[in-house]
Amino acid sequence: QVQLVESGGGLVQPGGSLRLSCAASGFTFSGYGMSWYRQVPGKEREWVAGITRQGDTKNYADSVKGRFTISRDNNKKTVYLQMNSLGPGDTAVYYCCTTIGFQRNWGQGTQVTVSS
What is the pLDDT averaged over residues 77-90? Predict the structure, then answer.
């Protein structure tokens, strides 16, 4: 059974940083790309960043490029999202995701709130 468990969210002041983690289990982690998405109430879930199986290719939404960094540790079966220079527009629930076959798998999400 695929499980994705996010952690690391919280309240941070504008300009601050957070690192999100997503611990994976129930599948061969190193065999799949991983992504981070985010969602605010009333809006569609937005893709934020993606990383390939071995971490050699990373892609970012324009809104976070240069501020966020996605990485992974296949030994720990964990994907990370380092978020710097956070602003109120980054407030959202952040989800990690992987697609296995035709099934998109999501974690439960972690809340990030950027506010003074």
Answer: 98
